[in-house]
């Protein structure tokens, strides 16, 4: 496996002062919406805890910053090239760190019924072999994990990333971007979490 994953419960986080840098604490204290503050903190804790296993620095010296695209990166003294990803949903947050040079994207979603309008807007007809909430939630988590793997959010049409009979296919702008990234072989892992969540991890399959 080319990545490490950590899942945390938002109700069981240590005090923010114990793991955030002074700059991160300022950002944390600036959030107006409690839900956003809590999930942001959970994502930071999961990623920084995971990263502290890779470095000799105190956890407060390891920072998580977001590019203008929203993509998270690790900031450590001397620099760091390990790709990372964060997700949060409901009571959980999760983060992953990949081997240097490999892509990574994680997405966690609560299993719940979705509207027909959302379904039509999000998926190609050829993907919808079922409309059961469990199936659609997993499919959506896989797409978002791939979007994060590629370093983009929902600026791409999610129908340009399709899972047909379980196989990932790229179309349109997503295909162009995938080619620019060197046409990596994307591997998808799925975890079922207690409480009715699907967690998808898109990682780069090592070349044999
Ligand atoms: C990225 C996106 C697909 C995730 O959506 P989501 O399922 O609602 O939320 P998740 O909890 O699973 O993921 C959120 C995390 O994705 C990460 N993320 C955001 N944009 C990303 C991108 N372009 N590439 C990779 N990861 C990204 C961030 O770490 C974010 O958490 P954080 O803000 O606490 O650091 C969606 O939020 C999106 O398209 N955002 C647009 C980008 C954006 O927000 N830009 C503004 C930058 S300030």
Quick tags:
three-stranded antiparallel beta sheet, Ribosomal Protein L22, Chain A, 208 residues, single chain, globular, alpha+beta, 5 helices, binds coenzyme A
Question: How would you portray this structure in words?
Answer:
It is built from 5 helices and 10 strands. The longest helix has 19 residues, at 34-52. It has a 3-stranded antiparallel β-sheet with strand order 1-5-4, with helices on one face. With 208 residues, the protein is α+β, with helices and mostly antiparallel strands. Helix content is 29%, strand content 28%. It has 2 domains: 1-102, 4'-phosphopantetheinyl transferase domain (Ribosomal Protein L22, Chain A, Alpha-Beta Complex), CATH 3.90.470; 104-208, Ribosomal Protein L22, Chain A (Alpha-Beta Complex). A hairpin with a 2-residue loop joins strand 4 and strand 5. Coenzyme A binds at residues 40, 43, 66, 69-72, 85-88, 107, 144, 147-148, 151-154.
